[in-house]
Specification:
Iron-enterobactin ABC transporter permease, cell membrane, mainly alpha, ABC_BtuC-like, transport, 0% strand, ABC transporter involved in vitamin B12 uptake, BtuC, membrane
Length: 328
């Protein structure tokens, strides 16, 4: 129950920043609503069309951004601990690509409902995770092997996805390609509510299993010496990490680089020997909410998929990270 003081302060500051970003996303002018009217809806209970825009259109989107960002960040922290590799995130290993494959197969099969696409993404992510784990296990199951196997699986699935889109029906292929960019556009309560409940459950599970990641960071021999059950611990962490990634991808598509960057950023700003899950989750939530605001406003009235913004920022971060690792 020891608490790292700087981590606690950083967590409190990040919570304020996330709340401020959420408020900005709700009150920015647009869709026929002015900022003062949006404030009236939030703080004075104003109704009418303004309430419809703020409560029924913007709020579910912002809630999805917060939960998806937190879930992806926690998933990235879990996989970086499992692989003991700074590049060990679900989008690098290929779980996002597998979820995209599942969604494409469902879409090109003629089923375009949200529940079906979300289910296909979830199943695709789970199957990909299982394949990567089993292939790594055959080779002796180490973090580096899992990253290398995941990169190979992601490359093959990426090529398969492009082939599916090229040979499928034009309209359905365009829908699948748009979903694959990673977008929060058009989300409503009917889609967000069930996914939000699932994400809250898995986020809570990630907080509960966070302590099991600490021995793994010391290496297999030290962890075993401390009494950790390595096989069971890895399977539990893998299940929670895959669930967080799959559910997030199911609602928003593959939003890349949040899982990679958020744990690193949280580790840098807390300066702790181990990163508490709270700063990691809040960092991911802040990144996605701000990225979604940029995606909506950068080329207004045209709205970009939030995944384009995170890929742009995350690509720059990945180059910096690779250059630093090369120097070391």
């Amino acid at each position: 129950m020891r608490i790292h003081r700087r981590s606690a302060w950083v967590g409190a500051i990040l919570a304020v920043l996330v709340a401020a970003a959420v408020l900005v996303a709700l009150v920015l002018p647009g869709a026929g609503v002015q900022t003062k009217d949006a404030f009236g809806v939030i703080f004075a209970g104003q109704g009418g069309f303004d309430a419809t825009v703020v409560v029924n259109w913007r709020l579910p989107r912002v809630l999805a951004a917060v939960l998806v960002g937190a879930a992806l960040a926690l998933s990235g922290a879990i996989f970086q601990s499992l692989t003991r590799n700074p590049l060990g995130s679900p989008d690098v290993i290929g779980f996002n690509t597998g979820a995209y494959t599942g969604a494409i197969l469902v879409t090109l099969g003629g089923v375009t409902g949200f529940a079906a696409i979300a289910g296909g993404a979830f199943v695709g992510g789970l199957i990909t995770a299982l394949a990567v784990y089993l292939l790594s296990l055959r080779a002796g199951s180490s973090g580096l092997r899992m990253v290398v196997v995941g990169l190979g699986v992601a490359a093959m699935l990426g090529a398969f996805n492009r082939w599916l889109i090229s040979v499928g029906d034009l309209e359905l292929s365009m829908q699948a390609a748009a979903w694959g960019a990673g977008s929060l556009n058009g989300l409503r309560w009917a889609q967000v509510t069930p996914v939000a409940i699932a994400l809250l459950v898995f986020i809570a599970a990630a907080f509960l299993v966070a302590r099991r990641m600490q021995p793994l960071d010391l290496g297999d021999d030290a962890a075993a010496g401390l009494g950790a059950r390595l096989g069971a611990t890895r399977l539990l962490l893998l299940a929670v990490g895959v669930a967080l990634t799959a559910v997030s991808t199911a609602i928003a598509g593959p939003i890349s680089f949040v899982a990679l960057a958020a744990p690193h950023i949280a580790r840098r700003i807390t300066r702790a020997s181990r990163v508490s899950p709270l700063p990691v989750a809040l960092t991911g939530a802040f990144i996605v909410v701000v990225a979604d605001i940029v995606a909506q406003r950068l080329f207004d009235p045209t709205q970009l998929p939030v995944g384009i913004v995170t890929v742009t920022l995350g690509g720059l971060y990945l180059i910096t990270l690779l250059a630093k690792e090369a120097r070391r």
